[in-house]
User: What shape does this take?
Amino acid sequence: MSTAATATTPSRPRSASWLFPQFQGMVARQDDRYLILNGSGMRSTIEGPLCAEVEASLERGAPTERLLRLSSAHVSLAELARWLATPSVPLTPLDAVRLDGFDTLFLELLGRCNERCIHCYADADPTVTAALDRETALSVIEQAHQLGFRRIQITGGDPLLSDYLRDAVAKAHEVGFEHVEIYTNGLALTDELLAHLAPERPAFAFSIYSANPDEHDRITRTPGSHRRTLAAIDRVVQRGLELRAAIIVVDRDGDVQVLVDLLAQHGVTQISVSKTYAVGRGEGHGEASQALEVVSRSPLRGGHRATDDRSSGKLCVTYQGDLVPCIFQRTSTLGNVREGTLLELLSRPLPTVERRGLPLAEDASRRLQCTSCRLTEAGLALLRSAR
Assistant: This one.
């Protein structure tokens, strides 16, 4: 590092790894090499004398003159030079999850569900008894808003089966969340329950699988579920509440457009189409949908895709109380909310494990919906790697 650079560049904390949220990128030191990677699957390795230039550039927060000269002939260095023009933070558990700012908290009130979907990522069904108690759930809602979360999805299992659902929705509105969504299959959404919830003006999201009732009911393993979900959608539309439909392609995608048209006939304007992810009972299902791109048919305000251009951070509190980075990232536990606050759990050093390498990009895309979630998983894996 030059004397001039040292004099004009503010000192930065020394760190083996840095996050560049604007580009969903990360640079990590491992042994005698640097890894350059992002959530979209780009992975490069810098070895040898070039490591000194990478290290000096990271310490400065700007590329050295030599790195800039070399970047014209080195794709990875050119990418790093672009990243260095944007804000970066040292890799910590908190920042690996927060990225460019917390966005959505997924809060699972309970594991019980009145469907038995063949692909359920949460392993929910009518026999699951695990659940969050009311006090814990309401405390988590308040803590999440204090951390800067903007949206909350209240889910399960099926949250309509929770006896304190309206309390949770009211708390989320009270503390100031921009968007409060109930994710449900709608089977338990009676006129009476909707009238109970409507004063809080929650948004609703409904999972649906096919325009064919028999095909939908085969996936949910619940006779009559297709008819009851559409009836719940109609009730929410009639109430004038915000709603979206999440089409999940489990086995085939041949009738997606037919289902989109059917939902439009029922007054649904926010529609997303997603493949099945290899989590929970989803492992082994949905291989036929893996080539399907995750798309939305209109702007979304809820769910995974409802983000702006930021690398938006997510968290999930499962119905067992485990704090995990995402509803689809359930094995990377960061603690349990009964043992500390969200901030306390995110601020703890992660226990190191035997180094196993980073998750394969192809495997991550099978399990995780968002590039930001894949970047978080890679960052946490690096932090857990034995040193």
Summary: Confidence is low (pLDDT under 50) at residues 1-9.
